[in-house]
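Hey, can you fold this one?
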Amino acid sequence: MSDGTGAGVRIAVIDSGVHADHPHVAGVAGGIAIRADGSTGPDYIDRLGHGTAVTAAIKEKAPAAELYAVRIFEERLSGDIDVLLRAIEWSAEAGMQLVNLSLGTANPTHEIALRESVRHAVDRGALIVAARDEGGISWLPGALPGVIPVQLDWDCPRDEYRTCRIDGVHVFRASGYPREIPGVPRERNLSGISFAVANVTGLLARLEHAALASLLAARRLECLGA
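Sure. Predicted structure:
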């Protein structure tokens, strides 16, 4: 049974890493860096800031969850599709229950590989949370069967999510605002679909374990029907 803090839930945050000593993060359970040259290492320190802000938004809602930083970005917030695929595979094999993807690609040539990656993750018990679309652009893997798809809803309070059905798919909608920084006006802070995804991930981590299992079972059916 969940106590509403995310206790017992393992979450991989695939992003630019994390600054674990940031006061809004206050430590993570571990992590890994996955590089374009095929190597991996323990240096998951965030040098861009995006992954730390995403992790902070998740930690705010699920403070007792076990968070793992999976760094795939180094000098900029873009990278190779093979690195993303390896990051999803690592997360699934490491026993993560939720995989936060505050990122995506609009390149349709990556769809087949990402479909297989999503199916593998779901088979291993991992729910991928990712952006479905934004501004008329469909994002992968968020628009694929088996993923928890997220849309922006600027009117949604940060401590909740809303749901709707689009083309028969159960879509989650959440605020695009991150955790607030004292003394920093909201308009000067980061915002956008990345944080809608993070807000949903954090809120899902607070669900009862049976509810998470039910979501996973539904995603398995989606993959089978795709």
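The two ends are 32 Å apart (CA to CA). Let me know if you want another pass with a different chain boundary.
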